[in-house]
């Protein structure tokens, strides 16, 4: 079933888990920014859900590099992606993974 990754957590459940974490963090902050650190897949399927695109995708075509930052804001009851950047790439750095 292509809608369920090999480890068994369906994409929709990943999106629901991320949405719950984002809503919780957003609701606890009175002003400023909230940072949530996650792996590539949860961020990418959240992007797809917010963009209204199908969750099933080719993992080789994800726009979600190591050391990337995807930014979302709440507009009413909806999330809106407001930015994507790869700080290591724009600073001329080399990402060698976690240390």
Quick summary of this structure?
The chain is an alpha+beta fold and 99 residues long. Helices cover 33% and strands 15% of the residues. The chain has helices spanning 11-28, 40-50, 87-90, and strands spanning 69-75, 78-85.
Give a written overview of the molecule.
This protein has 99 residues and is of the alpha+beta class. The chain is globular. The longest helix has 18 residues, at 11-28. It has one domain (11-90). Helix 1 crosses helix 2 (40-50). The N and C termini lie far apart (35 Å). 33% of the residues lie in helices and 15% in strands. A two-stranded antiparallel ribbon has the order 1-2. The chain has helices spanning 11-28, 40-50, 87-90; strands spanning 69-75, 78-85. 10% of the residues are buried.
Explain the layout of strands and helices.
Blueprint: H1 11-28, H2 40-50, E1 69-75, E2 78-85, H3 87-90
Antiparallel strand pairs: 1-2
Helix pairs in contact: 1-2
Keywords:
15% strand
- The averaged pLDDT comes out at 83
Tell me the overall shape: globular
Low-confidence stretches: none
Total count of helical runs of at least 4 residues: 3
Distance, first to last CA:
35 Å
How would you describe the oligomerization state of the chains in this entry? single chain
Order of helices and strands: HHEEH
Helix/strand/pairing class, anyone? alpha+beta
Number of DSSP E strands: 2
Sheet bearing the most strands, described? 2 strands, antiparallel
Number of domains: 1
Strand percentage? 15-25%
Helix content bin = 25-40%
Q: Taking strands numbered 1, 2, ... along the chain, how are they ordered across the largest sheet?
A: 1-2
Q: Taking Cα atoms only, what radius of gyration do you get, to the nearest Å?
A: 14 Å
